[in-house]
Amino acid sequence: MKKILILSGILILCMSLWLMLSPSTTQALPEYASQTGEPCSSCHISPSGGGSRGPRGQAWVASDKPGEVPDLIASLELLGVELSVDPAYFTETDTDVQEAEALDLPPAHSQKLYRWLSEYDGN
Amino acid sequence: MLRPGTDPAEQAVASSEEQVITTTCALCPSGCGLDVRVVDGKAVKVEGSALHPLNQGVCCLKGQTSLEMLYSPERIEHPRIQMGERGSGDWKEIPWDEALGIVADKLTELRKTGKSHTVALMHGDLRGQMRQMVQRFMHAYGSPNMISRESLGEGTTRLAMWLSQGINGLPVYDITNANYVMTFGGNLLESSRNLIGYLGATAFMRRGRPQRGKLVAVHPRLSVTGVKADEWIPIRPGTYGALALGMANVMINSGLYDESFVRDFTFGFDDFEDADGKTHQGFKALVLESYTLERVSNITGIPTDVIARLAGEFATNRPAIAVLPTEAGELSSGNALYTALAVHALNALVGSIDAKGGVIVQRFPDLADWSAYSLDSSARAGESKERIDGAGTQFPLAISAYQNVPERILAGKPYPLEMLMLLNANPLYDMPNNGRCLKALMKVPYIVSFASTLDESAAYADLILPASTFLEIWGDDYLEGTGYPGISLRRPVVEPVHDTRDPGDLLLELAHRIGDPLAKALPWESYKDLITDRLSTLDWEKLETNGNWSEMVYFNATPGSQAWKDVLGRDRLNAPKDGRFDFFSRELFALLGSDAAESCLPHFEIPSALADSTADALDYPFLLITQPLITQSQQWQGIIPTLQECYGLQGYVKWDSWVEVGQKAAEALELQNGDRVWIESKQGRAQAVVRVRAGLWPNAVFLPPGQGHHTFVRWGRSTEENLVVGENPNKLIEFSSEPLTGLAVSGPTRVRISRV
Predict the structure, then answer these.
(1) Separation between Cα atoms, residue B716 and residue B700, nearest integer Å
(2) Is A34 part of the contact surface with chain B (CB cutoff 8 Å)?
């Protein structure tokens, strides 16, 4: 019985040491947040941290955890992701706002509405 | 690409070892990733998949019970044909070849005689590619009658998104980055689409970052969402729209709305002239004139100072989100569309459209094109006929009018239905309508059900082609709820436990048996082939390894950017795609014409049950409300013992229904916890145990949904068959349809309570 207790104690000690010393690749650590000045959600998919990393987290680790987390576009470049669209597509705006056309009744559409609305991606 | 012989289920059996196979849940619309532990070909444990963007390792109570569904003794084990009268239970098991032959022969015969349009398919959830596959089946066969159950629930929100924002899809809420979230109905943190994602996001919003966001739940009942929220606002049932318009009144009156966004990126805020020089009232004038605080307070029962405070908080704690429910019955008070338009207008007032922390638009991956096919003259003639549910004719704006099908069948309009197929649909449970739904089904000469357990409607079918469960089949889910495009793979974790088949495979085989143009439209040998073909544009390695593929990045579109038109106006049919949010719906204007311009603005219509003049108010003083719960299984799913054990966690009731009654009402009726009472409406009556609750609108009563199934309740009960577990609240409700949209009208229903 004594032997079992001693063995169990050693086992628990070893496991604790292993847990303390081995770096976990997906653990959200508050010191990383302080180091980079960003919340855990910058790097992890889960907003509270831990678990899988998003693109910025992956790029940050891939570039040896520098003081700053690369921004999203830089991260995607670092990871070799080929964007199908230019990010400017989402951000650059026309200086002139498009005026609304005067309301008018359009010619009757031949498309059946239920069919138009059934053309729908989604579950 | 997936190769033959790499079926995870086959491997698991062959190796006789422990395996963990990743697949996608189908027990609610979320579609979370599951890791299923399989030992010697038997699934023994389910956990959340850590690599899935939606649930990130979490598995809800319902997901945990999926093995009970897989190994349920209630499952139908072989194809079966009704030998006696409909509903007699005189079944005979038959081989698949014979069963499919019967269906194929009937479908072929109807097509040959020019009656393809008299075949209808009513369906519930169809995931991933299945929706479009079924659509192709019905279209190429020559029937317009693919009728979705969404008119009971999420159809309202989708229609409102389309009519105002021009997006034919459900909104996604970026709660993680929001500062103020206000839910109008529904049960966001217990039963919403993307439940696990929203739970995590809400927790982070309130506790995971320096600035704490606020969650406000508006509902007549204090639900799990209400309990977890920072504030619960009890409201008179059926009046969410008035509250939203009252809040808009305060925001506009106080100048708290986003003036530049409203000016540059919306339409119909101010009064305006149309092309003929006719002046139309805008949203601002309507709201300021008709939705004063006092009036809104009288309608909703919420004090004026509370409405004003909520409006102020919402407008000044941006980004703010007004959340619409998608669950069945939550907006179905006869003013569903305008309620949803009013609530979504709040998002535009604070500039939350596709903003970080606002309402974002779900994007979808580019998949391989569907193969081209053309209709023959028979299919063309059939599919152009009027729909059996009245979508497009009786209801000009309807996507579907599921609840209207029985009435149309009974009326024989627009033509007698010859054959009905039921796929994930159980209309007899959904809307019994005092026996009228059963009467309607009995009038249809032939009914085929794809049920996996003997649900109420399947019991009255002529033929059952039993479906395999989601743990036995190939499939996919669009990854919805993150905004960015993604696919979650569904694959068999075990060989089919019984002699059942994937409905996708069954439809493909029927298509081949019937021949062209169906066979051309659906050329795949199996549903797995269809999936691998369609998803061949994606990173298969990642899809197979992780069980999902996604872009993981959502770019918000800045107003005025090129991307802006992808999130505002993209799917408009008749209205201009000018990047403007419609307070005044130009799609509605195009449809209704200039004489009905006032119907193009969000407004509030008092539900008939709330009208003071209703004589029923004296006889039936209570308003029956329902609210979805996490323990509620799908209407086709059968009895799940663990869910029954947990059903009434809030009321400590198991394997039964309970009725929640407000404290004052209970005192007046001298009712106490545990008393059994009748809840009676004009439609029928139900018996339940009383639970007195403080968290309930004074004259509201609540019955839990999902109980009261008649035909598959043996499991977990040591009593005879047909003993019902609890009561189906739908039997108290008279289901009708909104005249314009075909959306269901199902409450609040007036009821009275009496001691048993």
Answers:
(1) 32
(2) no
Assign A27 a pLDDT band (cuts: 50, 70, 90). Answer: low
- Mean of pLDDT values over B262-269: 97
- By Cβ distance, the residue of B274, B391, B558 closest to A93 is B558
Which among B526, B421, B646, B472 has a CA at the least distance from the CA of B75? B472
Query: Across chain A, which distance is largest between two alpha carbons, in Å?
Result: 91
Supply the pLDDT for residue B655: 86
The strands making up B231-233's β-sheet, listed across from edge to edge, are B231-233, B214-218, B180-184, B320-323
How far apart are the two ends of chain A, measured CA to CA in Å? Answer: 59
In sequence order, the 6+-apart residues with CB closer than 8 A to the CB of A99 are none
Would the CB atoms of A100 and B589 count as touching at under 8 Å? no
The pLDDT of residue A28 is 59
Cα-based distances in Å from B294 to A58, B181, B315, B562: 54, 24, 20, 43
CB neighbours of residue B683 within 10 Å: 18
CA B497 – CA B480 distance, rounded (Å) = 30
Helices (H), B162-194: 188-191
Per residue in B152-165, pLDDT (tens digit) is 999 999 999 999 99
Q: Supply the ipTM of this predicted assembly.
A: 0.83
Q: What is the mean pLDDT of chain B?
A: 93
Interface test mutation site (partner A, options B489, B574, B577, B592, max chain A beta carbons within 10 A): B574
How far is the first Cα of chain B from the last one, in angstroms, to the nearest whole number? 63
CB distance B573–A90 less than 8 Å? no
- Give the DSSP H/E element, type plus range, for residue B286: helix B283-290
B388 to each of B114, B120, B206, B401, B415, how far by Cα in Å?
16, 8, 48, 9, 8
Q: How many CB pairs (< 8 A) connect A and B?
A: 146
**By the 8 A CB rule, do B119 and B421 touch?**
yes
- Does any CB of chain B come closer than 8 Å to the CB of residue A8? no
Residue type, B628: P
SS3 B596: helix
Task: Identify whether the C-beta of residue B120 lies closer than 8 Å to the C-beta of residue B372.
Answer: no
- And the tokens for B194? 């993307």
Q: What does the radius of gyration of chain A's CA atoms come to, in whole angstroms? A: 27
Residues B453, B435 contacting (CB under 8 angstroms): no
Beta B463-464 vs B446-449: how paired, if at all? parallel
Query: Is A122 within 8 Å of B362 when comparing Cβ atoms?
Result: yes
Domain map of chain A by residue range? 28-82
Three-state DSSP class for B226? helix
User: Does residue B576 have a cis bond before it (omega within 30 degrees)?
Assistant: no
The minimum CA-CA distance between A102 and chain B, rounded to whole Å, is 5
A117 touches chain B (CB under 8 A): yes
Structure tokens belonging to residue B373? 């096919």
pLDDT digits (tens, 9 = 90+) for B351-372: 999 999 999 999 999 999 999 9
In whole angstroms, give the CA distance from residue A63 to residue A75: 10
Q: Cα distance from A60 to chain B (closest Cα, Å)? A: 16
Say whether pLDDT at A21 is over 50: no
Residue B365, preceding bond cis, omega within 30 degrees? no
What's CA B432's distance to the chain center, in Å?
Answer: 18
Cα separation of B364 and A45, whole Å? 19
Residue A54 in contact with partner chain B when CB distance is under 8 A: yes
B437 vs B403: CA distance, rounded Å: 9
Contact between B692 and B668 (Cβ < 8 Å): no
Residue B382 forms contact with A (CB below 8 Å): no
**In angstroms, rounded to a whole number, what is the distance separating the alpha carbons of residues B433 and B728?**
12
Q: Provide the H-helix boundaries in B366-470.
A: 377-383, 405-411, 427-430, 436-443
Q: By the CB < 8 Å criterion, does B412 face chain A?
A: no
Our measurement of the distance from residue B264's CA atom to the centroid of its chain's CA atoms, rounded to an integer in Å, reads 34
Q: Which residues pair with B81 in a beta bridge?
A: B92, B463
